[in-house]
Design brief:
The protein has 3 domains: 259 residues, 3-Layer(aba) Sandwich (Rossmann fold), CATH 3.40.50.620; 115 residues, Isoleucyl-tRNA Synthetase, Domain 1; 71 residues, no CATH class. It is 43% helix and 15% strand. The strands form 5 sheets. The protein has a 5-stranded antiparallel β-sheet. The chain has a 4-stranded parallel β-sheet with strand order 4-3-10-11, with helices on both faces. Strands 13-12-14 form a 3-stranded mixed β-sheet. Helix 9 crosses helix 10 and helix 11 runs parallel beside helix 13. The structure holds zinc ion. The site of zinc ion has 3 residues, from loops.
């Protein structure tokens, strides 16, 4: 039986078995969004790749520790070039017309974080073990920058602290971007700090006493660079060496290249063994852009166009993650039809199971093979089109064999649901982003009682519930209310909005 989980590794440019540092335990970091606007479906395609990797690993019986962050400071408008410049995306979003409704940048961050978590649940993604925020790890980032300075991998100028690319011989090993000339080309349109020693050097800390989000550091007031955030959060929750790091293909350079340089300069050890990157998504054959009016979010599709959430999920995973993907409304309609068939088959299988039917051995055998084929397809570099085709084959068998179904049909449907997440929504206790949002799982072990951020997290959960209610997703809204109740927080809705108080212990 095939038990190797083979994935393309951007670092080695080969499809190879995931080899884990600790056998049976996947330590996995996936870059989350910058919460300056609603995440679009291209972002979610990348989050879904991570979700499928997680589900496949769990089907192999592996333990998983999955961290995906929220970037809420430091990601600049020109951060896709090496000499990150421009404005902080959060600050410029606040100054845009869409930002006018927010009182301040923290309010904006809370709103889009809540929307992200609501979309995450809508598309039935597994919750991470931890969803850290960059702004909650400023102290560790400052400490890391101090270490990089003391080991000669970084230096200070009047505008900030920079990583010295020359000090790290392996720079470029992920993206292949090594030559100073091509990097200079990449930065020609942006303002370059003339005090930088090498055009390739990138900012770890930006000095800016006027910035909307600023912290005090040994180098004065300012804020961290985007790349250092992920190095620090990955290390904080997963250790110096991790098994797998993932993100969209646009993150290969400079973001992930810079993460490798920082982390490896710091520890002297390989940062991540495997790197998985999801290719871009187009909509109806065109690049998604606000200007073309084809910029789609989960909210647009589910809440405005009324597409069933699981159909959006199925459409987004219908193309293999490593191939460019053309999202079309025809695919969406097919996916809607397929999800209906999955649900019909689930219902039939459940009835057979509830009625205690044995099922014929031929059907049992067919479905066993199909289930194995679904898993094998995922183990083969997440071949989702093949996995979905095998799952649909099993569904066809179930729909055509109503009277011959037994307990195996039900377990087939549940296993397919666990693997692909397209049959029914996750249930059970794994609403971990909620516990995470309340500070559980952080290395310092903050408890809700002594956590100074608790109030803002409660507000964030209440906002997530408001977003869910506005979207008429009452199941999600109720889940959040129950979760708050478990934390002894009672909420009350009134015409003026939602208020909360702590339940008295008496
Ligand atoms: Zn990142």
């Amino acid at each position: 039986m095939n038990r190797e989980f083979r994935l393309y590794n951007t670092l080695t440019k080969k499809v190879e078995p995931l080899s884990l540092i600790e056998p049976g335990h996947l330590r996995f970091y996936s870059c989350g969004p910058t919460v300056y606007s609603y995440a679009h479906i291209g972002n979610f395609r990348s989050f879904l790749t991570a979700d499928l990797i997680l589900r496949t690993a769990q089907a192999l019986g592996w333990k998983t520790t999955y961290v995906t962050n929220i970037t809420d400071v430091g990601h600049l408008t020109n951060d896709d070039t090496i000499d990150a410049s421009g404005e902080d995306r959060m600050a410029s979003a606040l100054q845009s017309s869409a930002g006018e409704r927010f009182a301040n940048v923290w309010d904006l961050s809370r709103h889009y974080s809540a929307a992200l978590q609501s979309d995450w649940q809508t598309l039935n993604l597994l919750e991470p073990d931890v969803r850290p925020r960059a702004t909650e790890h400023i102290r560790e980032q400052i400490q890391t920058i101090e270490h990089l300075l003391s080991c000669g991998a970084a230096y200070q100028t009047s505008s900030g602290v920079y990583f010295s690319v020359e000090s790290f011989a392996d720079y470029g090993k992920l993206s292949g971007n090594k030559a100073a000339e091509s990097l200079e080309l990449a930065v020609r349109d942006v303002v370059v700090d003339p005090e930088k020693k090498d055009p390739r050097d990138f900012a770890l800390w930006k000095k800016d006493a006027d910035h909307l989000m600023q912290w005090h550091s040994p180098w004065g007031w300012g804020f961290p660079g985007w790349h250092i955030e992920c190095s620090v959060m990955a290390q904080a929750y997963l250790g110096d060496e991790i098994d797998l790091h993932a993100g969209g293909e646009d993150l290969i350079f400079p973001h992930h290249e810079c993460e490798i340089a920082q982390s490896e300069a710091l520890t002297g050890r390989p940062f991540s063994r495997h790197w998985a990157h999801t290719r871009f998504l187009q909509v109806e054959g065109q690049k998604m852009s606000k200007r073309l009016g084809n910029f789609l979010t989960v909210k647009d599709l589910v809440h405005e166009r009324g597409v069933p959430p699981l159909a959006v999920r199925l459409a987004l995973i219908s193309g293999q993650y490593r191939k460019p993907f053309n999202f079309t409304f025809a695919t969406l309609r097919d996916s809607e039809r397929h999800v209906k068939r999955f649900q019909e088959a689930f219902q039939l299988a459940k009835e057979a199971h509830d009625g205690g039917a044995e099922g014929t051995s031929t059907i049992t055998e067919t479905l066993k093979n199909r289930r194995q084929a679904v898993l094998n397809a995922l183990l083969d570099d997440l071949n989702t089109p093949a996995a979905i085709a095998q799952a649909l084959g099993g569904v066809r068998t179930i729909l055509q064999s109503r009277n011959q179904l037994g307990v195996h049909a039900y377990s087939f449907m549940n296993q397919v649901s666990d693997l692909l997440g397209i049959v029914h929504r996750n249930t059970g206790p794994q609403n971990q982003e909620l516990t995470m949002a309340l500070g559980i799982g952080r290395p310092e072990g903050n408890t809700p009682e002594n956590d100074p951020h608790q109030d803002s997290r409660i507000e964030e959960l209440i906002q997530a519930r408001t977003v869910a209610r506005e979207a008429r997703d009452f199941a999600a809204a109720d889940k959040i209310r129950d979760e708050l109740l478990k934390m002894n927080i009672v909420i009350e809705d009134s015409a003026g909005g939602t208020s909360w108080h702590k339940k008295s212990n008496i």
